[in-house]
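Title: Prediction job returns without error message
Component: structure pipeline
Severity: low
Priority: P3
Assignee: unassigned

Description:
Job completed but the reporter wants confirmation the result is attached to the right record. Sequence as submitted:
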Amino acid sequence: AALDLHAGLGRACSGILGLAESCRESRKALDSLGSGAVVGLFPEPDGLPPASLSADSFRRDLDRALATRDGDALVACLSAARATLDRHGSLATALDLCAVAIHSVLAGLDQAEELLGAWFADRPEGYRSLYAIPSLEHVEAWLRRLEAGLAAHFEETAASYQEQLVAAMKRHVDSHCRERLQLKEVAAYFGLSANYAGQLFRKQAGCGFSEYVARAKIAQAKLLLDSRHHRMYEIAELLGFENAYYFSKVFRRVTGQSPREYLGKPATDGLGTMEGLEGLDEPDPVDDFDHEDR
């Protein structure tokens, strides 16, 4: 039996970092083949789709939206993909992005197969009907169906998921409160952006992230003060404060009293000496815990 083989070729590359670009060129070359042609070489760079069509960036944005159940980020990601395909896309490139979307959904959601099956129940092959789609317009319709299904799922599950996520962030802070904790680092630990994590934390916890960290540290400080085994500067160092003076400021902000007032001892108090306590009872300005990156 005769076999017609058509191929698109990207430019040769010398390193692995050039493979993605060469693959994109070969896709464009294949899509541009005229009737009777069997091999297409990479076109001029100006004829290539822009970097916004990168499967890697699309995957990264979609994975972030799935991880946080962020409906706005989901709509922005898929809408941008459709808009870019409208301007510069080819069928081959569009199918690549849809394949990335399927992989991300399968990897990022529990019971993803069942969800996808329900969203594409009217298609003979379900969501796999993607691979028989004949045109770019049909691909865009497929993406809209996926977006609608994900948006509905996010609306149903986001509140519970976000509560669990913030609860996990609180547990992380409580178990690491002797370290210097910054929002951007904790957010990265949970795969979130600092901005989104800060907004989510305030919404669910009723206070800013930095204020919660301060409360957790002062709760530990009270236990250390009650033990009478540490001087003030030692407690400050143990809990990741810059110095004893700043520790006292935060203690007063959270509790309404200085560490010495909390102990109820004006002089020698089981800490051995007054070392580390001098100057700590002066009135302090109120700390602004709304600055999330303290």
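Comment from assignee: result matches the submitted record. Confidence is low (pLDDT under 50) at residues 47-52, 267-294.
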